[in-house]
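#data-curation
PF: Archiving a pair of folding outputs for the training set. Convention for this channel: one message per protein, sequence first, structure tokens after, nothing in between. First:
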Amino acid sequence: MPADPDQPPPPGSRVGPAAGGRRWSWPRRNTPEQVRDRQHRLQALPHWDRSHDFVWEWPRPAGEYAGLLEALTAHVMLPLSVVGPLRLDLGRYHIDDGDGRLVEEGRGTEEVYVPLAHTEGGLSASMQRGIAAVLEGGAVSTYVVHDRMTRDSCFLFRTTEEALALSSWVLAQARQMRAWLHDPRNPLYQERVGGVPRLSRHGRLWEVDTHVLGSACHVLYRYTTGDACGPNMITRNSFALNHEFVLPRFTAATGIEPARVLLEANMGGDKKPSAQYFIAGGHGKTVLAEVTVPERTLRRVLRTTGKDMVALEHLGVHGSHASDMQSVAFTPASAVAAIFAATGQDLGMVGTSSMAHDVLEPVPGGVHLGVRFAGLEVGTVGGGTGTPHARAFLSLLGCTGAGGAYRLAQIVAAAALCLELSAAAAASTTGSVDFATAHLTRGGRS
């Protein structure tokens, strides 16, 4: 396939060598020829170190990655550790086709081995220590209590009155919106843009909420997306709703036309920690995890006491309030990011998926630790989950079949709870000496 036409550089920009030395031309496609062209241009840079040429050597054929991203050029390798066995009491879930309710269809206890792709010294050892503490007393129990993905479209009008008119109209039309979107005879299912259907059959709309600010009406479409994480699905369906349902029908019914329409206006909870979704969920899977740890295990395995753990939580909660921290937790992002990297999740969603709230309470003979993840944005099909390494580790976790996304969300929550347990135990020791020692021995290099 021939290279794309040359593109002029932006005014005042500095660019690398171009064909003929006159025009900027950066090959943008993922044909083998253009991949090699990009590599050769980077190798030709005067500061490139040829000892780094190993980044061009593919662990698998480059074609297996070509459909996942643009401008494919090289690879990066993260070391991966495996910890376990993590004993889980977890649920099996599905969405009721009639009303969108999340239904638990059964539970079971299993042991899984957790892959962690990371370079954080001490992370694997700490999680393994938390897992060991759990194994002494039983299992981590996990529950999925909510599942939605939200896209926030926005319609700007001239007055608040017009925005309120749309709000009332949308709320009255929610059932008709669902019927139109899910009608298999909808011709948009047959239309394609770049080979992709304009509508996704797997992005199921369940609720439509509105929020009026000034002369703008935010329309919050809430979906389920099967075993996919789903942002692309809900983007396609929301765009179609805006332009093929809302705009023509609202204008015909009221004579009011918006001055501007945005597909996403930052109330959807997409890749940004949000107070709304921290409380109510709605952008990912809301998962609860719990474990009770006996006092003897706290002392023998975690080298702390229930009294010390409770004291740490008391001070930590006040520290969270004082800093206006979005989450009330110790270090959930480390576990979330490591499992996300291993299983091909969207790394841009680590921030929102790490919104967590720990609650530690003394119970007779030990402590009870509960963690709430407001929105774990995970999928087991689509996107990076199709990379060879992701398929391998999703298979290791037993997450490649129907319902795999619910299973993965629970494993992430349980693994993060084990890390929370271990890290908090280390920090609760006198002077936090265990916490400091772990960082010195596991991660200190300078």
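PF: Second:
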Amino acid sequence: MLPLVNVGRKHLDEYATIVSHGLMDEVRRLAEPLAGLKVLHVSATAFGGGVAEINYTLVPLMADAGLEVEWRIIRGAEEFFEVTKAIHNGLQGDPRSLTEAEVETYRRYNAQNAADLDPDAYDIVIVHDPQPAALIESFPNRRAKWIWRGHIDFSTPNPDVFDALLPSIRKYDAAVFHRREYVPNADLPLVAIWPPAIDPLMPKNMALAAEDASYIVDQFGIDVERPLITQVSRFDPWKDPLGVIDAYRLVTKRFPEVQLALVGSMAHDDPEGWDRTVEHAAGDPDIYILSNLNNVGAVEVNAFQVTSAAVLQKSIREGFGLTVTEALWKVRPTVGGRVGGIVAQIVDGETGWLVDSVEQCADAVIEILRDPEAARVRARIGKEHVRRHFLTPRLLRDWLVLFTMLTGGDTGGSEIVTA
């Protein structure tokens, strides 16, 4: 069998004081007739990136709702993950197409992983993102309902790369995208559209006192008496860490005391970017480039966000950008690229700042540093926006509605956006 991820336990009741009673009642009503439904999640990795973070909460909450749910990950050698990284970039617009050998490598590893999977043991199989999308090709006579969940920005994909995946995606019973703009103009099955969400009770997002956060950040050599700006992301060109460094350098012309932290997780299927970022920092002692390899975990990320005068997510492509959600939940002034799902979270001038360039990013940070009280007003509005739209119980509710639809049940008036 494919490796099983141990997700621990979570309880829906713990969220009752955070989200509305109406939402919690709806979740319980939808879950009751689905009790015992066997659900499998399949993804490329169990750490690094938004998919893994979501599943560590979503999977145990599905279990607490009465479903029998597992999360398994595929296996692959370096050659496979090099191809899937090229696919990832191509789906977000990189002009490089795949070679025939790369397509063969992708399909071969998917077939090998499929040999370790018994789909008839499940009622629902959820496949996350491009890496395992071709698993379905090995099961023409499947009994379960298969759902493909895309977590990246598909608005302007390289057509050659997308065409390599499209035959597989068309075989699914449903496909889920973050935004309507990501749905390709293609003959797809039932399409659902909903944003991802964060877990407010995870160590990364739970309440952390300012003095505790400062103590943690101080351990990394950062001067907590000076302003800090932070971006939490993979060291991925689409997250534009080099542009963040350039923006920081412009900010230092007005606020020379400012510091920058680039905090990322090094996932095993995403080996690029670190060296390029370190090189661009050029030894600046006030730029801190940190990852899980430096013992930066969930609590440390929380501390960096809480301590920051401004949190950035200067993406040039972005599926959704849950780090924006995290920062707003912590009432931090937040600056994001005007791309992808960031625009669903940041209402420019109301909940944060949207920017299109290095210069605009620097100007937004300078505005925050000049008037921190006005910046906090936006951040407080942003926290309420997150509470209403981007917390995990709402995400669970959406999945339960889709499961009910696919299994022929009655949603009782609960709806999801479809296209």
